[in-house]
Amino acid sequence: MSTTDGLMRGMEVIDTRAPLSPIENGTRSPIHEPASALVQLEIKLSIFET
To answer: In b/e form, how buried is each residue of 5-16, taking b as 16+ CB within 10 angstroms?
Structure first.
C-alpha cells in the first residue's frame, strides 16, 4: 500500500464492493491472497538493505 497523502476526512469515496486492493502498473491485486507455491519462488542471493 502506498501513502495516504492527500486524503482527508469527509472526502468522497467510491464503494467498489471489492476487497481492499493495491494498484500497481494499472492492475488491481487483492492484498489478501494465498501464498505462492514454493517452486515459484526465486532463489538468488541478494543484499537486503535496511
So the answer is: eeeeeeeeeeee
Average pLDDT, the chain: 78
Grid coordinates representing 33? 491472497
Coil, helix or strand at residue 40: helix
> How would residue 1 be classed by pLDDT, with cut points 50, 70 and 90?
low
Task: Say if residues 22 and 29 touch (Cβ distance below 8 Å).
Answer: yes
Contact 24, 13 (CB under 8 A): no
Q: What would the grid cell of residue 4 be?
A: 495516504
